[in-house]
Design goal:
Keywords: GTP-binding, Nucleotide-binding, Repeat, Ribosome biogenesis. This is GTPase Der. Belongs to the TRAFAC class TrmE-Era-EngA-EngB-Septin-like GTPase superfamily. EngA (Der) GTPase family. It contains eleven helices and 16 strands. By secondary structure, the protein is of the alpha/beta class. It has three domains: 98 residues, GMP Synthetase, Chain A, domain 3; 158 residues, P-loop containing nucleotide triphosphate hydrolases (Rossmann fold), CATH 3.40.50; 173 residues, Rossmann fold. The strands form three sheets. It has a six-stranded mixed sheet with strand order 3-4-2-5-6-7, with helices on both faces. It has a six-stranded mixed sheet with strand order 9-10-8-11-12-13, sandwiched between helices. The protein has a four-stranded mixed sheet with strand order 1-16-15-14. Strand 9 and strand 10 form a beta hairpin. The N and C termini lie far apart (62 Å).
Length: 478
């Protein structure tokens, strides 16, 4: 097992030549204030497997957000997206294929679809127009007619004008006029969306989503317990859980009340291999997992404490280090860890997590709920560090003491001098050093350790960049 890559992952270093540049980055203001918006009405897209729900969702969003593949059953959880049409914003919920009287994993997927039906402000039932109304479509229609919610019927895969007449038979479902559309080509999608915005209420019901809570990404290798942990925190089945690895494909957004605060959790697909080496559904799921990390503020990395630390675990941790997000390391399945395994685990963590020892650590059991309530304090600590700013005066006083005791190593026969330091930004905290020469990566890591000893920053990465003085070119006398 190798360690997390120890190469320097900070921002690109630069140069300076004028004394005025020493203080131009010294900005004490706050960055990226949280913007809280009002609730949005919710539209749930439901239907049996492989009728084109996710393709239609991508058409409405005008981007490839939902994972699409020819294989039925790719979407399994209910996944929420922010959509907009004709100036109206609404939450669009993609669901897995709904099948009555199913069992096993399909039953869990159907339960998620039924939950979306019961909590949405309006429902869009998608039917394959080339097949017509099946028994499953009729069963879904019966459920929706009893739901007392507005229902729209989309007859998908109408790629040709000759198929429009066939959609008239779908009136038999008792859901009103069928809208013939082609999710693949965009045919009549505008007419369908016009009907959607007319149907949605002006204000959301109890299921309306609210943006603004701190964003948390749950990541880890497949079958490590991400969905189980989210369900335990939420107190209900928000994500499909099954013993087979790779159940989650799309990132799943959930607003969760934890320790008196609302958080926006994103359950992601398990990372199996590097994005460049993945293919098909796994490739797009990996891209969405990476995007979920980039859009989050704090990342919860789940590790199976009952098994040896693997290359996949280290790859996940490397992604977090490179993303610059606050981090909480969660050792899951702690109920399966005995005394001997705890000793081995400590050795593995000391050896493998050299670059991320600053992460907050919590030992939990998603199955039993052990120590789950400790997650909120750990996330708050990490986010406080992520937003922390050190006054320039304190930073330079500390730097003078450190350099006086341990000066930078000699490079090229000359010893660099660090003249000034300032914290250029937060999220993550980034310290810029103005120097007369380049500082080795080893000395930067030394400065980071001493910085943490003095100012803390638990749970947050710290980046140290160096700007080297550029010598003014003297004109040669002829």
């Amino acid at each position: 097992m190798s360690e997390v890559d120890d190469t320097w992952t900070g921002e690109v270093d630069g140069t300076w030549s004028d004394e005025s540049e020493l203080t131009e980055l010294d900005v004490e203001g706050e960055e990226d204030p949280e913007v809280v918006t009002g609730g949005q009405p919710v539209l749930a897209v439901v239907g049996r497997p492989n009728v084109g729900k996710s393709t239609l969702v991508n058409r409405i969003l005008r981007r490839r957000a939902a994972v699409v593949q020819d294989t039925p059953g790719v979407t399994r959880d209910r996944v929420a997206y922010d959509a907009e049409w004709a100036g109206r914003r609404f939450a669009l919920v993609d669901t897995g294929g709904w099948e009555p009287n199913s069992s096993g994993l399909r039953a869990a997927v159907s339960a998620q679809a039924e939950m979306a039906m019961s909590t949405a402000d309006a429902v869009l039932l998608v039917v394959d127009a080339t097949v017509g109304a099946t028994e499953t479509d009729e069963a879904a229609a019966r459920v929706l007619r009893r739901s007392k919610r507005p229902v729209l019927l989309a007859a998908n895969k109408v790629d040709d004008e000759r198929l429009v007449a066939d959609t008239a038979a779908l009136w038999s479902l008792g859901l009103g006029e069928p809208y013939p559309v082609s999710a693949l080509h965009g045919r009549n999608s505008g007419d369908l969306l016009d009907a959607v915005v007319r149907t949605l209420p002006d204000s959301p019901g109890e299921a309306g989503t609210v943006a603004g809570p701190r964003r948390v990404a749950l990541i880890g290798k497949p079958n490590v317990g991400k969905s189980s942990l989210l369900n335990k925190i939420a107190g209900e089945d928000r994500s499909v859980v099954h013993e087979s690895a790779g159940t989650t494909v799309d990132p799943v957004d959930s607003l969760v009340e934890l320790d008196g605060q609302t958080w926006r959790f994103v359950d992601t697909a398990g990372i199996r291999r590097r994005v460049q080496l993945a293919s098909g559904t796994e490739y797009y799921a990996s891209l969405r997992t990476k995007a979920a990390i980039e859009s989050s503020e704090v990342v919860i990395v789940l590790v199976d404490a009952s098994e040896p630390l693997s290359e996949q675990d280290l790859r996940v941790l490397t992604m977090v280090v490179e993303s610059g997000r606050a981090c909480v390391l969660v050792l899951n399945k702690w109920d399966l860890v005995d005394h001997e395994r705890r000793y081995e685990l400590e050795r593995e963590l000391d050896r493998g997590l050299v670059r991320i020892r600053w992460a907050e650590r919590v030992n939990v059991s998603a199955r039993t709920g052990r120590a789950v309530r400790k997650l909120a304090p750990a996330m708050r600590t990490a986010l406080e560090s992520w937003d922390k700013r050190i006054p320039t005066g304190q930073l330079n006083s500390w730097l003078s003491e450190v350099i006086a005791a341990t000066p930078p190593p000699v490079r090229g026969g000359k010893q660099p001098k660090v003249l000034f330091a300032t914290q250029a930004r937060v999220r993550p905290p980034t310290v810029v050093l103005f120097s007369t020469g380049f500082l080795e990566a080893g000395y930067r890591r030394f400065l980071e350790r001493r910085l943490r000893e003095r100012f803390g920053f638990p749970g947050s990465p710290v980046r140290i960049n160096v700007r080297v003085r550029q010598k003014k070119q003297q004109k040669k006398k002829r």
